[in-house]
Design a protein that fits this description.
Largest sheet of chain A: 6 strands, mixed
Structural class of chain B: mainly beta
Number of helices of chain B: 0
Oligomer: heterodimer
Low-confidence stretches of chain A: none
Distance between the termini of chain B: 37 Å
Mean pLDDT of chain B: 94
Mean pLDDT of chain A: 94
Number of helices of chain A: 0
Largest sheet of chain B: 7 strands, mixed
Radius of gyration of chain B: 13 Å
Chain lengths: 113, 113
């Protein structure tokens, strides 16, 4: 059974710092991995999608990497801003009949001005 | 990308009553997904809704408690029946875009009193 874990559970950094969020998964038979942002009480916004054949994806200040063999992904945020404060979720899409999304536990990020 | 509109955005309901949540997508999709996010938790898949057939429920979720309709390829509803305080959660609708990227609605924040 696929399990997705995110470390740390919470992170507080001063504005301007570069930071790394970690995501690990137990079953490498995945179709892709997706990073989301969730503001309090709101829905999910897709940040980056990495297909299983890819090693990384970049969008603006965000860079996500994928090491499928070791079951790890990282989300790198450069020059953090207070507006980056949110919960960040990773999710893996299982290979199989239903291609289900399995979500991680999330990292709550606070960027202090 | 897909644009998903979810209604209502939030509601406060009395225990024992039912609430129907609507999800409208701006394009035709085969499958629509309903998730629950309990306070402080990550997302859990409730069911997958296919047009023209009964929804497929995940372990721990039953049709009597969470009936789902899927009348066409752009619309679905989830009803939370006979509510109790334990049903207080964010409920989210999701669809898959091209290359199996998941998109989410803004969520329905339900509080049962």
């Amino acid at each position: 059974k696929q399990e997705v874990t995110q470390i740390p559970a919470a992170l507080s950094v001063p504005e301007g710092e570069n930071l790394v969020l970690n995501c690990s998964f137990t079953d490498s038979a995945i179709y892709n991995l997706q990073w989301f942002r969730q503001d309090p009480g709101k829905g999910l916004t897709s940040l980056l999608l990495i297909q299983s054949s890819q090693r990384e994806q970049t969008s603006g200040r965000l860079n996500a990497s994928l090491d499928k063999s070791s079951g790890r992904s990282t989300l790198y945020i450069a020059a953090s801003q207070p507006g980056d404060s949110a919960t960040y979720l990773c999710a893996v899409r299982q290979r199989g009949a239903t291609n289900k999304l399995i979500f991680g536990t999330g990292t709550l990020l606070a960027v202090q001005p | 990308s897909a644009v998903i509109s979810q209604k209502p955005s939030r509601d406060i309901c009395q225990r024992g009553t039912s609430l129907t949540i609507q999800c409208q997508v701006d394009s035709q999709v085969t499958m629509m997904f309903w998730y629950r996010q309990q306070p402080g938790q990550s997302l859990t898949l409730i069911a997958t809704a296919n047009q023209g057939s009964e929804a497929t429920y995940e372990s721990g979720f039953v049709i009597d408690k969470f009936p789902i309709s899927r009348p066409n390829l752009t619309f679905s509803t989830l009803t939370v029946s006979n509510m109790s305080p334990e049903d207080s959660s964010i409920y989210l609708c999701s669809v898959d875009g091209l290359v199996t990227e998941a998109f989410f609605g803004q969520g329905t924040r339900l509080t049962v009193v």
